Every structure is written in C-alpha cells, then in structure tokens.
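Loading example: each entry is read as two labelled lines plus one structure line.
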Amino acid sequence: MSGIVGRADRANAMEDLRHVGRSEVRIDGLDKVTGAAVFVDDMDFGPDLLHAAIVESPHPHARIVSIDTSEAAALPGVVRVVTGADFPFTFGLYMQDRQVFARDVVRFVGEQVAAVIARDPRTAREAARLVRVEYQERRAVFDPLEALATEAPRLHPGLGDYPHVPWFFPEPESNVAHRRRTIRGDLEAGFAAADVVLEDAYRVPRYAHCALEPHVVVARQDRAGRLTVWSASQSPYTQRHVFAQALEPLGLSHQDIRVITPYVGGGFGGKAGVSMEILGAVLATAVRGHPVKLRWSREQEFYNTYQRQGLVARLKVGARRDGTITALEHHLFWDAGAYVEYGANVVNAAGLSATGPYRIPAISLESVCVYTNLPPGGPYRGFGYSEFSFGIESHMTRLARAIGMDPVEFRRRNAIVEGDLLPYGALMNPSGLHEAIDRAAEAIAWGEEESPREPGHRVGKGFALFWKAPAMPPNASSASFLKFNEDGSINVTVSGMELGQGYLTVMAQVVAEVLAVPPDKVRVETPDTDRNPYEWQTVASHITWSCGNAVRAAALEAREKIFQVVHAAHGLEEGSLYLEDECVRCDTDPDFCLPLRDFVVAGIETPDGTYRGGPIVGSGMFMPEFSSTHADPATGQGGHPNVHYTVGAAGIILEVDPETGKMEVRRAALAVDAGKALNPALLEGQVTGGLLQGLATVLYEDMRFDEAGRLLNPNFTDYKIPTAHDIPDEVVPIIVEVPQPDGPFGARGVGEHTMIAAAPMVADAVEAAVGIRFNEMPITAERVALAVARREEPDTWAST
Amino acid sequence: MTLTRSFTYVKPGSLDEALALLAEHGRAAAVLAGGTDLISWMRDDLVAPEVVVDIKGLPGLEAITLVDGTLRLGALATFSDVLRSPVVSAAFPVLAEMAGVVASVGIRNRATVAGNLCSAVPSNDAGPVLLAADALVQIAATDGERTIPLAEWFRGPRRTALRGGELVTRITVPLPDRHGGCYLKLGRYRGEDLAQASVAVLALPGDHYRIAFGAVAPATVRAAAIEESLEGRPLDEATLAAAADLVPEVISPISDLRASAGYRTHMCRVMLRRALRAAAERLADDGPPYGERLL
C-alpha cells in the first residue's frame, strides 16, 4: 500500500467518491428475485447421495445406559447407523465442551445421540425411530440462578479439562463455565456520592434466530480421503478449522478439508461457528465416496442449533441530582445452556460492555456463564448487548425520572465521547453519539404530546441509546484476492458471507471505487476454502470494516501493479498516473488514456514487439494490530479486547389500547453512526430489519419450555416472527457519519446494532402510556392488558 | 417436508365414486380438500390414513350461491372464495369479515370453510359466525344424505358428528332478512395467527342478538345466556356491562402457551362489547365497514 499517490487516493480521502456512499443496486438482487441464486439445498449431488436422520434425546439430563441400533440397521435402505462410540470426538469454537454425539450423558432435550444414514430421507427418519436408547434420568436444572446453587446438579464434571481460549475463566466444581469481571474506580465512593441509587432486576428470555433457510449440510469424503463440506454457514473458514480440530483423530487436517458455502438464506448469528454441520462432516467419513445430506427441520432449527441466551440481570446505578452518573454495578447471570463453546463469548462480550455507552467513573461488571439443561446458547444478532441493554436503558430512564430530569437530557449528559475511558480502561473511539441522540429525539418530537388515533388509546414515547463492539479474537482477520479479466471486468474472492445484508455489493463498490470500474463489472464470489482466501467469520458486524479493508488493500495492490506496468511500457511516472472510467490517465499528459481492458491480461506491447506486464492480480489482508486480551483477570483492566464501538440512539412513538394491551408502533426512529455509509440504501435496510427484529423480541417472540426442558413452541404457529402486517407505521433511519479512522472510507459496522434499542424503548413507551413498568421481556399485549386490568379492577383480579 | 408413512392417494371424479371409496375404507380414509390441516397432521403423525381421498375433482362443490334466502357454501369453497364472493358480501358480509382474518393469503387460497369445520380445532374461525347463524351441515354417504345443525356438530377438540364413510358436501345458512354482524378474533400480533379467543355477533331487528365464542371452550360455543340477557334491550352501557359479566358463565377457557385463561376471559368481555356495538351499528347501517380492525 505504501508509495502510492495519485488522484484516486484523494478520492479515498472521502472526496469525490464515485461508487462508495451511493445506493448501488445489489449485485445479487436479480439472481435472488428470479430464483437463480443457488443455496445448499438446491445443489444436485447425483444418485450417490445419502440422507441422514438424527436420534435425539427425549430427556434434559440423563445417563445413556445403552444404545441398540440393530433393528434400525436391519431396515432395508439403511446404509449405516452410527453413535458416539464411532466418533468419540469433542469440538467447540472457544471452549471444546461439545460432543459430536452424546456419549455418556445427554444434557438437553433434542441432543443428538445417534444417526442413521439411508438411501432416502424417509427411510432414515423411520430407522431413527427404531434405535433403542436406554436412559437413566438425572436431575436437571433450567434456571441460571438455581444452577449456581451448591446443591444443583453439575452438568460438566470435566469442565476443568476442556481446552479453551485464554480469556475464559471456567470454575470447575460448579456450573460456571466462565466469569468475566470488569472493575474500575471506587464503587463504594461512587454510590456514596450519589443522591439517588436505583437497584432492580431484569429478565430476558431465550430467543430463536428464525432464518428462513434452515441449517443444511452436505459432506463427502472422496476415495482419496479428502473431505468436502457444503454448508449454509456464516463461517466457512472457522468451520474448516473446527472440523480439522475435531477430526484430527481421523488423520484429517486443514489441507484435507474443503468448505464450500453458496448463498445463505439468513443467519442472524445462528449459522456462525459450527453446530449441526459437525454431524455432516463425521457422517461423510462413515460412508466414504458418498455425499451425505443432513437438513434440519424447522423444529430442529429451533431446538438444536444455537439459541439466544436467557439473562437475569441485577443492576444498581447511582446518580447525583445534577444528572451525573456516579457508579454502576451490574451482575449478569446467563442461562447459557448445555454447551457454551460459543455462548461463553457472548457472556464475555457483555461483561466488557454492560455499562452501555456512558461515562461512569466507578463500575463493577460481573458476567457469569452458567450451564443449564436447555439447548446450547450462542451468537445471535446483538451478541449479548440487546439482553443487557434492556436493563441498562430501562434503568437510565427510571433513574432520570427519579432525579427529576428528562431522560434524553440525562443521557446527553452522560453519553460517552471520544477519549473517555471504556469499562476496561482503553479509550473510546471517535463517535457521533451526541448527534445521534439529538437527531433521534427530534425525529420522534421528544417532549411533545401526541394524541391517540383511537378514543381510549394512550400514546407513549420511549428512548434508548445503544452501543456495540465486534466481539472477536484479537487477531481476527480478513483477506481478499482480485484478478482482472480480458474485458476489464474483475473477479474478487473473499470468504465473508452474503447473508442478505448486501456484503457482496459493498465489496464490489469498494473495488469499483479504487479501480474506477462500474460495480456491475466486479464479480464477488462466494467462499470455497480451496480457492478463496481466509476470513475469520461473518459475524460481529465487522465484515464491512475488516473485509472492506482487505478488499481495498487488494484493489490498491492491483492499482499499483497497473501503474508499474504503464510506467514500464510508456515511461510515465507512477505518481502522475490515476484511474478514471476504466482507463489509466496521467496528470502530466491530458491526452493519455489507456483502457484497462487493453492490457490488464494481455500486457502492453512496446515498439519492438515485446510486451510489458501480464495478468493483473491483487491481494490484500487486514488484521487489527492493536487488539489484545491480556488483562488482569480480577478487574479486566489493561487489555484492548474490543477494536471499536459503534453507537447510536433510537426513539419510538407507541399507541397502546389499555383494554386489550395491543400496541401499535406509530413511528420508530434510529440514528446510528456508521462512520461512512458505503451503501445508504442497504444501511437503511439494516435499520428497518433490525428494528423489526428487536420489536418482535419485546412485543411477542418468546421461547417457552415446559418443566421438563422441552421447547413448547418450535414452530411458527406459536413462535411468532414479524410479518408484513407488523412493520411499524413509519421507520425513520438516520445515518450519522463520524469516520472510523481505520475503517474503509471511514466505515464501521452497523448490522447488529439496529435491534439493540428496541426492547428498552418499548418498555419506556409502555410506562409513559399506561404508567406500568415492565422489567421482564417480552412485553406482550396480554401482559400489558392484565397489568392494567389488575390496577383498574383489583377486586376482579384478586383471585387470579 | 417428509411424510414418513405411506398411503394410497385417490382422486375420484364423481361424488358416487368418492362415497364408495369412503364407504369401503371408513375411518382408514381421510378426505383431502385444501389439505392445510390434513398434511401437517400427517407430517406430525397426528393422523395416519391408509387412503387419502382427494375431493378436489368433484364437480360443483366449490359453488357459493343464495337460494331462497339460504346461503349455500359448497364443500370446496375456500376462504378466498368467500372473500371474493359478491353473494357473500351482499347477503352475509360478516362471513367475509371472518374469512379475511383466517391465516394468510396462501392458506386462504387452499383452506376450505367446510374443512375448517371438519378439523374442528377449538380455535377454528368458521365456527362462531356459522354457529351464531344457525348453519346446517349437509352430509352425503352411500346410504343417503342427512343434515346436522352446526349446534350438534362439534363434539370436542378435533371431534365432530361426522361418521366414517360420510362426506360433507355443503354448508347452508338460513339468512335472517336484515342483520348486522361482527367477527372479532384475538391474535398475538397483526400477522397470521390462530384465534386465542373469538366472538361472532349477529344483531337482528328488535334487539335480538345471536352470539358465539371460539377458542375458549373445547368446541365453538353459543352464548344462549348472554343472548337472553340482551333480548329486547337496547344496547346501552349497563346492558353491555351486564352481558360482559355473563361471559365467564358461557366460556371455559384454558391457559396454554398461547394465552392465559385470565386474558382470554378478559378479552372475551372486551370483544363482546365491541362486537355487539359494531353489529348493532351495522344493522342500523351506521357502523364501521366490514373488515375494519376493531382490536
């Protein structure tokens, strides 16, 4: 990247941008609306394809006494039946606490115990029912607080032996898989200095991602021993790595494994890491030469992938009457489920940031990852921030009211700014939080009364701030390859995933900007780990920032080569060259104009008939070189675990029918500091989608389990996700642009952030409308109506 | 979607052929019309028919007609057919109001009104309006036809008066000359949902009311006690309150993951008051348009 000058660099300084910052049409759009886009389930694997079905635990906690597969194996059409005895492997992303198949113990209802591979899906399913498993039931625990009790059943006696990343602190002899503490300042003095101290608890249930495309994997180990896995995944490289770790006993290493990931029908975190895909990978090794397909049903999608973890939070915040927050103490107890190989990092992320975006001199955060006998928790859009923000933001409004201050003004006074200390002691990055507060408040006419549309209804407004940092290992990285074609078009390979967010389009825009070609001449290919370069994962809202930097670096390298070739052939100074409209031009020779297509593969012919140059390629990589998890385990101080925070503010106007409890979102406004909106239309789509998903979690979504740990609503009949009818009357996306210094064109991620504020601002608006504060999600129409009815007619409701 | 069990699929071309098949296989046969319940029940192994008799090829069963003041709904009439029917919108618009809140457009295009009655889940949408209207179920079998009042049709969750070998051919509704109607359905959000509770009200001249509730008892229930309390009284606040107070005597809701018994009861009271008002106003040609959201 060094030594490059020219006009295009001035463009990169955010002036005169031609493609970045414009709402370019998405490059995958036509293929998706016409059905041409290929997803894993669309792929044809020929007549050798076999199908797998899974034998699942009916118990939340039990010892496996015996497994009898003989009847299943005898069914015509069955090829193999396998159990944990065949594959006694463990796996996991951040902590290897999961088993490919449960062996001695099952820990949640639905856990995989055995698998049948058959010639057709129906036979596989039928045979799976014939596998006889004898269990000895054990006491189960579903509540994180109960699981912390000394007499609670211990889920993982082997906890002390599980390999894990160095920033986890498991507590063997308990159900605590990890405890993150972040402590700074004098808490006691802080609370003593406060005029008002507010203390309360908040509860958030589990949620499901509900991507439209269920998890699906096809895997084949060819006769040469090479394992290829096609999966619906957010994480091809991380999958390859986890497969390589888990299958090492079979002699497989990274070079023997290939992961191919075509388009994905939504992820929201649920397709990050490795969940059911490990089954595809191991089953393929049992029937070498045959591709094996495993596709989750909608029910399995709910109970055996990842779920968003439940949270019980105890929060105490003090403030002076002048509006200054003096101290904050936040204890977070996470219902992390039966395995926490990914979920423990959600707990960790929350434990670093559960102050919210506020400047607070004394803080104590304790975030505890607790094993329970529910399905494994894991990543979900927001990565813990939505969960803790429900309490934090609810609390901030209540505290402001308690000291008699306007809740927006209270937030303005305490909102974090560049250079303030972060919870773990590093400094806050540049941010437009105050601009976001002002613009979101203005968009909902904060402070002005609204009249209801219907007689008898009440209107309330709510307001919340949000922040979130990517939760990544300190060396999470991205890479990109780029090559020119004869017609001057470009192929870019990356290994981030197009999840619907428009990532491929934005990467094409970055290349188009640097190399002065139209975005529709840039093909960005979906990942194949044999061909596309490394990417950590498409998670953490980091892909625009991290992969965008890698793609930009690849384009800059290609541009440098272009200038070198032109210099070699024409003698023009490299520093005088620039790209414009698919041509190389020269500052010092206005008539010079060399179309890219004339030479980017063929080279440039010189007068003696020889050629200079050759096929132009570029490569780029990006890794943050300032991030570190080295810190004092007791206080979390001293490291730099998060690269930066994206911040924003949101407000809502809610109309409530107090009789029915029905709530209508009349307007939701959300301002987010994107640094630089590389594609404003796609960003506005994130705001709309994120708000809708967040509003659903507070208004009606809710995973419900019975007393035996069985999920009662693993379907869309009873787990409600928003339809077109449920979109707010008006969504106001507001883009704030305070550049991120190390972001491509100043950009930072926004994808997850757009849902974080939804729940607390609804709680605020409900309180403003009907005078009742809810500390537990979801805040359904039923809960609102019954709370109002109990208040209005206490006699009628005395017995209920 | 994988159906694990195999079955024989038959698509008869005439009513006689269909009835012969049903007579031959009795309870081992299932009738397929829209299939929106049957196929998912088969997938979940709630039913395991040996023979599936697809009646979509039977002629004439999709018709919606008005004959001598009686509305006739063929067994193949879908909710979308009802929504689009000029006969329904002119003569019995509350039926279209009901059809408009059933599931989603795709389901409404397939699901039949008669099938909804045959499935007889407590939350069925067709039941309350048709029960309030004293509808009749026309049934055919190889040994003849019979007619059952809807009041005698529901026998419990997923249980009806239909016997093995029988086929519902038509629903008939003897329409009152003048009426105002209202169907209100409680869902968990605006999108498609099963009724958590529902109420149908028909207001007739002279302050006569016919009322039925859905999803708050093992079967759709007629609210005779409330009808009597309202008989001949103009709807004022006191009358409405007295009617609402009778709700707990009429319904027997359960608490499940969809709603608590307490909320169902509370909402039946709220919905009854709103539906009575709307039906009475519509009778007087002064009410909200049919299909307008009142919840």
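Chain B has three domains: 8-54, 64-174, 180-283.
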